[in-house]
Amino acid sequence: VMCDPRSLIEGLNPQQEEAVKYYGQALLIGAGAGSGKTRVLTRRIAWLLAHGFWASSILAITFTNKAAAEMRERLVTLVGPEAEHMWISTFHSACVRILRRDGKEIGLKSGFSIYDTADSERLVKLIAADLNIDTKRYTPRMLLGKISDCKNGLVFWKDQLKKANCDYTPGQRGYQVSAGDVDELVAVVYAEYQHRLALANAVDFDDLIMRTVELLQTCPQVSEYYRHRFRYIFVDEYQDTNHAQYVLVRELSGIDSDEQPDPQARGAGRVGPSWITVVGDSDQSIYAFRGADIRNIQDFEQDFPNAKTIMLEQNYRSTQTILDAANAVIAKNENRKPKKLWTALGQGDKIVGYAADNAQQEAGWIANEIARIHTEEDVAYRDIAIMYRANAQSRSLEEAMINANLPYQLVGGTKFYERREVKDAIAYLQAIVNPADNVNVRRILNVPKRGLGARAEGLVAGYADAHGLTFFESIEHMDQIEGMTGRTTKPLGAFRDLMHELADFAKEHDSKPSEVVAEVLDKSGLLEELQRSEDPQDASRVDNLSQLQSVAAEFEQNTPDATLAGFLETTALVADSDQLPGEGEDSGKVTMMTLHTAKGLEYPYVFLTGMEQGTFPHQRAMEDTSELSEERRLAYVGITRAKRRLYVTRAAVRAQWGQANDMMPSQFLDEIPDELIDWKRREAGVERMRASWGDDDEFGGWDDDDDFGSTSFGESMYGSSTYGSSSYGSGSRGSHSTYGSSHGSHSSYGSGRS
Ligand code: ATP
Ligand code: MG
What we know:
Blueprint: H1 5-9, H2 14-21, E1 26-31, H3 37-50, E2 58-61, H4 65-79, E3 87-89, H5 91-102, E4 113-115, H6 117-130, H7 140-152, H8 157-163, H9 182-199, E5 202-204, H10 205-218, H11 220-229, E6 232-235, H12 243-253, E7 275-280, H13 295-298, H14 300-303, E8 308-312, E9 314-315, H15 320-330, E10 342-343, E11 351-358, H16 359-376, E12 384-388, H17 394-403, E13 408-410, H18 420-433, H19 438-444, H20 454-467, H21 471-476, H22 486-508, H23 513-524, H24 526-532, H25 536-558, H26 564-572, E14 590-594, E15 603-608, H27 625-639, E16 642-656, E17 659-662, H28 667-671, E18 677-681, H29 738-742
Parallel strand pairs: 1-7, 1-8, 2-3, 2-6, 4-5, 6-7, 9-10, 11-16, 11-18, 12-14, 12-15, 13-14, 15-16
Antiparallel strand pairs: 16-17
Helix pairs in contact: 2-3, 3-4, 5-10, 6-7, 6-9, 7-9, 8-9, 10-11, 10-12, 15-27, 16-17, 18-19, 18-22, 22-23, 23-25
The chain binds adenosine-5'-triphosphate and magnesium ion.
């Protein structure tokens, strides 16, 4: 490595330098937001490389693929191209690599599919139908959530059956779950779900972690291989690891093995546990709903003998005002170690507050203010971020941005890879790579329409079930399926031939995923069906498919050994924040995202919106202390994203569940010391003006119960959707009449807070 190690500690404060240089087996860098944790982690890796440690012996885990790419880039800048050889990835990506290499040891065939949440839900739905489960009462989503909880806690399906005292055998027919026994229900669905995943040679997201742990725990030669390989393990955002991830780290590090280091050993000798460095802030733990366990960071010193903890106290990101606000809010959480966080950046601007009459007005004010600081204060759009608690809130904000003609990008929402047409195309690719993938084969059976309805699907599925075949194998035996008529066998045969043709094409063009995508779009008739359609929505769907082809072409260019399977992996593992432009790329746009997505990021100007009881903190959290603490940590994350100026806004009326509700100010607003906030408008409902940007009875703040998820309409990300075009904003969507009626009811409000 051509790099002077001294350059790596330049400009660091003493604690940061100590952390970079620390020589020892277990290190925790615990510190508040913006204190340089991620920076120190990166420097520490560079430091090791500069001292002759092998790049291939390093494993660094980040929270998103985007963070991984950034860290890699930075390391290449710091120490040179050797950094390319390092494993820097998310937990999920690292596990995919491990399972691709060694998954055969636990029964995974190469080319296994990775199911996303929508695929998994489809599978649960199929199972629920077969088991006669009342899906009104037990929704597939809820069942999947329970399965996910099991997996995050490393409860295997057999354990869950035992726990529920249940003797169900996967694949068994006619089993009756005792009424009202949720444990048993979950156990049975979980067992069946794993059974069918295995038949389909597929795994879901949680399996990536759980099955890797299973692999390491059951195959000593495999775990030994990785223990020798990864001598230095780094984990960023450690506060958000769940139990399964925690055990995974332990397994990889070999901390529990009784192997003692052998000083005589060279090469393949006994090596003893790997070095481990974790970085995190327990005040920023915000993924409890995915099983994140704050104790992982709190107990680090007990978990890893002789662990060293280094605390960083200087914040390099934010002004004192912003830090004071953040510190005041988080201080209200119980059972936390108080932290001192200070900054040399000075007091800075006051926080700017604004109370709006309703969500539209709030959004309108924000758009105005953005336009104002852009022209008057010369603030670049890319330096501004708007954050909110739930995706559904983005709608009124987007409307305002569009009406004010401001460039923006929405992160999250309906993600590119979750769009119907994109998923259809990908289902074809999955089915080509892995014909056993029943969920995806069934998805495309009648897409585009080829006259294969539910009856045909049922016949094939029934035969497959009875003969232990995959769905596609059963199609190959269709002449033996009873009840088939010529009306079914003809299109079914055409489908079979199509898939064979596509598979042959894919074999010949494996290294050119973009050509396979083109072939699929063309031969399947997917593209033609959309092109023929008169529905304007379908025009944007066509654009999305062409975008998919571009993504594949880009993948080819950036990946030396590109394969179709490799391409599918990258599409399966994109997270929300991966959609953001990378460092140095100039987006030139205002960024809009949920608070969860904002973790680890920073922007000079941040708008925290919807600061109301019931919006943020979320309704559910208001009666539950532990959930409220989690919301408060989320507020802490939000506030500390801001570098120069923070805005806090709220609306006195917001539509929820189709009803206009009066909203009290968020308690987090009250927790920020009064003198830190400069209220541009403190009381809502006092000056009730007609909003100048829209019609009074139009309203766009329809809030779904969507938390972090998938049902927002934001499609501006790839620039190709109909959304954001001029057809928008005419009020044709979403003019819910409930609004007008309670519009006047919030005037009583303003007096409560002076
Ligand atoms: P978070 O808790 O939000 O993940 P963090 O602790 O990981 O934050 P970083 O993102 O590493 O903090 O650093 C915050 C900002 O401060 C970054 O812009 C980083 O470049 C800068 N920074 C950190 N340490 C220093 C330093 N010693 N000198 C100058 N800038 C620094
Ligand atoms: Mg960080």
